[in-house]
Design brief:
With 97 residues, this protein is an alpha/beta fold. It contains 2 helices and 3 strands. It has helices at 25-42, 57-70, and strands at 5-11, 46-49, 82-88. This is Caspase family p20 domain-containing protein.
Length: 97
């Protein structure tokens, strides 16, 4: 049973090329709210979400590195017993981002 998890939510809802990738209104308006309700309020897990709705692969990599540093994940000083990573956004034939 996981009791002290860190939830990392990567929610990408805005895209430069709206012809290829439509912006995902529900990611911003519903998904983030629903995940916060479940993980923060109901399960009392710590949660962090990307600050920008538009991210490149490099932005995601940088965000993950910041989370590892800010939450001291290398030494696990907060004694997390689980890490949950959620990615909301478009995907394409095996390419998540």
């Amino acid at each position: 049973t996981i009791k002290n998890a860190l939830v990392i939510l990567i929610a990408i809802s805005e895209y430069d090329d709206n012809n290829k990738w439509k912006n995902l209104k529900n990611v911003k308006e519903k998904d983030i709210k629903n995940f916060k309700q479940l993980f923060k309020q109901e399960l009392d897990y710590e949660m962090v979400c990307n600050p920008s709705p538009k991210m490149t692969k490099d932005d995601v990599d940088e965000f993950i590195e910041q989370v590892k540093f800010n939450f001291k994940l290398r030494k696990n000083t907060s004694k997390y017993d689980g890490i949950i990573i959620i990615v909301c956004g478009h995907g394409e034939n095996g390419n998540m981002l």
